[in-house]
C-alpha cells in the first residue's frame, strides 16, 4: 500500500535524504532548489510524497510544474528499496490526475535515455517520445523528451 500526501516544507529533510540516495553522484537537488519549487505551491507547482504506510519514512516524491495549458514533471524519485512496488506509478498517476483536473492539454517530462525502468513506467502510462536532448545529463547521457496528452474528463 502506498500513501500519498502533499509535500510540505517540514518534509524537506526527508526529501533531501531521498534525493541524496537516489541521485548520488548525479547532481541531486539542493535544499534551496526544493524551497524554490515549494514556493510555487499551489499556484504553479504540485508536489506529492509517498510513504509505504501512514507515519512511515518518505519512500518517494514527485512534482509537477503547471502552466496555462501544459505541465512538466519536474522530478520523480523513489528510494531503491521501494522500487518495483508501484510507488512511482502511484505518484505519476496522481500527477496526471491533477493535470486532468486542472484542464491541461499535455504533460511533458525528460528522462535519461539509459533509464530503462523509468522509460517502461512512462510508456506504460501513455507517454510517447517527442524529442531528444543530446548529452543533456551528467556523463554525456542523452535526455528523451516524452509527452502524454491529457484526456478531457
Task: Describe the protein.
- This protein is α+β, with helices and mostly antiparallel strands.
- The protein has one domain: Aminopeptidase.
- 28% of the residues lie in helices and 36% in strands.
- Strands 1-2-3-4-5-7-6 form a seven-stranded mixed β-sheet, sandwiched between helices.
- Helix 3 links the parallel strand 4 (70-78) and strand 5.
- It is globular and about 40 Å long.
- 25% of the residues are buried.
Task: List key phrases describing it.
single chain, about 150 residues, alpha+beta, Aminopeptidase, seven-stranded mixed sheet, about 30% helix, globular
Mean model confidence by pLDDT: 95
Radius of gyration: 15 Å
How far apart the termini lie comes to 27 Å
Whole-number count of domains: 1
CATH architecture: 3-Layer(aba) Sandwich
Helix content: 25-40%
CATH superfamily grouping: Gcn5-related N-acetyltransferase (GNAT)
The percentage of residues in β strands lies in 35-45%
Q: Tell me about the biggest sheet?
A: 7 strands, mixed
- Overall geometry comes to globular
**Category by helix and strand content:** alpha+beta
What would the CATH topology be?
Aminopeptidase
CATH class: Alpha Beta
**What is the number of beta strands?**
7
Determine the number of helices (DSSP H or I, runs of at least 4 residues): 4
Q: Give the uncertain stretches in residue-range form.
A: none
| Element-level helix/strand string | EHHEEEHEHEE
Biggest sheet, spatial arrangement of strands? 1-2-3-4-5-7-6
